[in-house]
Amino acid sequence: MQFDRFGFAIYGNTEESQDDIRYHDYDEGSVDSNFLTTQRVWEKIVNNWEKYTNGSPNKEMVKMVYHDLVDVNISEYCIDHAIITLSKYECSSSIESSNMTAKTAARISIMRQIMVDIGRSFPTHRKFMGDLAEGKEGRAQLFRLLMVYALYNPSIGYCQGMAFIAGMLLMHMNEEDAFWSMVSLFEKSKYLRGYFDKSLSRIHRNAEVFWRILEQKMPKLWHHLDDMKIHPLMFITQWFMTLYTSLPCWDTVLCIWDMTLFEGTSTLFRIAITIMMQLEDELLGATNLTDLMPCILKISPKIVKKSKFIPAVRKTVLPEWEIEAVQAIIHEDKADEVAKRKRLEPELDELGSRDKRSRIDETQAVVTSDNQVSESSLLQKLAGIISGTKEIKKHKARRTSQITPKRRQNDIRRRRAKPVMIEMKNLGNVKVDNLASNVSMLNNPLYSDAKSRSINNQENTFSFRKELNNDQLFKTARNDWFCSSAITNSPDVEMSDFNKQSVRLKLELENVD
Amino acid sequence: MDEVHTTKVVLLGRTGSGKTSLIVRYISSVFSENVKPTIGAAFSKKTVQLIHGEERKQVVLAIWDTAGDERYESMAPLYYRNSSAAIICFDLADRQSYNKVDFWVKELVEKVEQNCKLYICGTKTDLLAEYGGPLKRAVGPTEVMAYAKKLNAKFVETSSKSNYGIDDLFKLVAADFAGFTLCEAPPIEDSLRLQEPNQTDVNEKSSCCF
């Protein structure tokens, strides 16, 4: 068996190759050195792990859980057997013939689910494939990682998609470090917090945001897709929730990961928009859904080849504030809808705990019934954003290249607040209070947290501010925010991934205290 | 010139029940152990030729393969809405996955997808003891058939590994959509014979009435 430089099996022209999504013809040149430097940066991060994890949560606890799992011997060398055993336990628990508690039953169900998935996560990568020791151990690690996480954070548990992220981490670091990386990836709002929760709330919100951004940036394509009744969740779910590991070119995937770790989830939008740009002609040429869907869902290596795709990503301008502003608009629209509905149909209140599956239906129903109203106000709001963009361009031009970090930080805050301020003007006096709190949210990476909380509990927007005053949280968030914005906005035009990563690392270490 | 019709088909069912393998077998005629979990959904299409006397029809099956993880259930309406057929899969050796069938049936009935024909598909026959596999049936065929009859659904059994019943299933879906009737009974009759039919047998069964 032959493997490519990233460890993926090359099947040649055998039967398996038909099902192999990986493209092995990588671009020559920078890849190797890039890979090495990425690894070096990872090493540094790992060596300074104490600083990142801050000693809490309790490592000992996690170690204990690991040992337990290894002792049970369930993970190591008998996955099929384990699946069958677990299924059996799962069944008997549902029949209530045993004394199993609900908690145990739930755990067994999660275990079984993970077992089923680990055999098919990166099944062509040497670390996870085959019957040799390496593959078995790789799968065992993957199992332990996911299972321990499910125990560590039961409110999230396990969700399909996580295995790809855990798998990627295991390709680059040891098990325990991979675990802590996973914890920060899944729990920091800058990264994937909310993507895997029980209602998958964040991806639903992201889909709406992406759709509006696409409408604004590529109206022709947007109309074309909309006419075919394509919903963004049909494709961005796969992209966002596996951090693009489903793309065929692995060198491109690594680059995307670099950018995402550096800039946070706004990169995910940037990549998605870039893919749409690259696909635009092909998609516009497709006259029906059956021709169009395969182009988006099975992206050809031609489209995402690193030498062509990554420069295109760098050219795509989609700053974080723009995404957040769109998010705020949608949030406002929702609040409006809720208020309107409350006025019109008070009985709907009783449906507070309504079935989550009907949510998509209902949102659409509301949109159609209020079509005209929401459309015109949306236009107004978008106009606000666009004029905001112009303001910012001017603003940026005025900026001198020698700004102190402190000034730069304030500068950035002002720029982020601006579009929302403009939007406020456009909206007149409607809900200024609410918007003002949105502005303060926008200035903080904790924003998405606060937002999800305020959606859950419309009355209680103040809990967010209380949390802002909590020194520790605010400090970390501010440091995070400062580092990333300082680098993204630095006058050096095209920094390589390596430079960005190491600068960020340096800055982050400096700002720890 | 043949008439061409496109129809939307959706696959539902518990995680690991073999939905993606079924599609991969049908579309690419291979069985792969390397089918990755479906995140969100996947899309495939295949054209089925139907011949009925003088009448010829082409049916393009636009097939949505959905994620089995319960958390993705909130997205399912995107895929089953306006489907003309729903294939609800369950693993014949896994009682839990059979229990999930009822969930999807209720969901479809509740959301008033009245034009959506239901197909209940028991997967992985190759794993059953009666076909020489290691596992016992978790649910008897008479139970499933009674259930399917009550719903006016069709019940088929398949194996993606040994390529059993799959072409038949999709031919049946296409023929039902086009209003054709197959002269042979649906493949469940085969499975009740409790033996694996050979390749040529399957091919004969899949032809339509003339």
Question: Helical element count of chain A?
Answer: 25
Instruction: Write out the strand line-up for the largest beta sheet of chain B, numbering strands in chain order.
Output: 2-3-1-4-5-6
Major sheet description of chain A: 2 strands, antiparallel
Query: How many beta strands in the DSSP annotation of chain A?
Result: 2
Describe the global form of chain A.
globular
* Quaternary structure state of the chains depicted: heterodimer
Large-scale geometry of chain B: globular
* Percent of residues in beta strands of chain A: under 5%
Return the domain count of chain B: 1
**CATH fold label of chain B:** Rossmann fold
CATH superfamily of the domain at 57-187 in chain A: putative rabgap domain of human tbc1 domain family member 14 like domains
Helix content bin of chain B: 25-40%
CATH class value of chain B: Alpha Beta
Q: What is the N-to-C order of secondary-structure elements of chain B (H for helix, E for strand)?
A: EHEEHEHEHEHHH
Family (chain B): Belongs to the small GTPase superfamily. Rab family.
Keywords (chain B): Nucleotide-binding
GO molecular function, one term (chain B): GTPase activity
Pfam families (chain B): Ras
